[in-house]
Amino acid sequence: SPLVSLRGVKKTFANGTTALAGLDLGIRAGEFVSLLGPSGCGKSTALRILAGLMDASAGTVEWPGSGADADHRGEIGFVFQEPTLMPWANVADNVWLPLRLRGVSRKAAQGSIDECLDLVGLSGFHKSYPRELSGGMKMRVSIARALSLRPKLLLMDEPFAALDEITRFRLNDDLLHLQRDFGCTVVFVTHSVYESVYLSSRIVVMAARPGRVVAEIDVDAPRERD
Ligand code: ADP
Ligand code: ADP
After folding, report:
1. How far apart are CA 213 and CA 133, in angstroms?
2. CA of 133 to the centre of ligand 2 (A)
3. Cα–Cα distance between 59 and 206 in angstroms, integer?
4. pLDDT tens track for 66-124
5. How many angstroms separate the CA atoms of 159 and 55, rounded?
6. pTM for the whole thing?
7. Ligand 1 — pocket residues by CB below 6 A?
8. CA-based nearest residue to 214, from 36, 57, 46
9. Ligand 1 atom closest to Cα of residue 191
């Protein structure tokens, strides 16, 4: 059974725009799924509803492994297109934030902070400030922060869209290794066919008007490349 599913999810905004018109999507544990489709087809909306950041107008988000009232926010890491780091806090304190919000002291968090920065290739950057880092490195910190709660599910909303091509290729490679080492489930929103083929074990293609799934593609053995 899937880790989490969207069933018949519809979303109409206050201004009357329908972003999703009955989306069915099941995410299996351990898979790397890309949501691929043109701008405006409802990818971000689907991801936000999966994350519990936004309510659906109709339909349900189901976590078969737990009761209907369970809070899953602690099991989800979310990476936005912009790194959204706190400029006044150093790298380590930025990664600490989600743990801090759950009452974990800086001292108790140290091991997790070290591990997450190591996973994204930024050991030794604890005391750097966001303004001292390149765009790619800021994105790495943002990924480390999303991993700090050891999420089962990592949701990424066009995380590399604002980066130059070389940085983006590098981060794609590192993300593949990271997912294998960390062992989490990833849902990755992109409008890049290249990125979806390179990264995913499964591609879910969405189309606008109405926002829904039009194709699902199993990508063969994507992990054999390394
Ligand atoms: P994608 O991520 O595929 O680009 P989105 O989920 O961001 O698509 O948006 C889907 C549709 O919903 C678009 O037409 C967009 O303009 C619209 N939309 C998104 N957010 C809002 C909002 N808060 N209010 C009104 N319309 C919105
Ligand atoms: P990224 O792909 O991580 O954004 P960039 O190519 O933007 O990296 O790197 C900008 C500068 O930061 C380069 O001088 C690069 O050597 C340095 N840099 C990037 N990542 C690291 C790292 N993990 N350790 C040390 N230096 C790094």
Report:
1. 38
2. 8
3. 18
4. 877 788 888 999 999 888 899 999 999 999 999 999 999 999 999 999 999 999 999 99
5. 22
6. 0.88
7. 13, 15, 17, 19, 37, 39-45
8. 36
9. 3
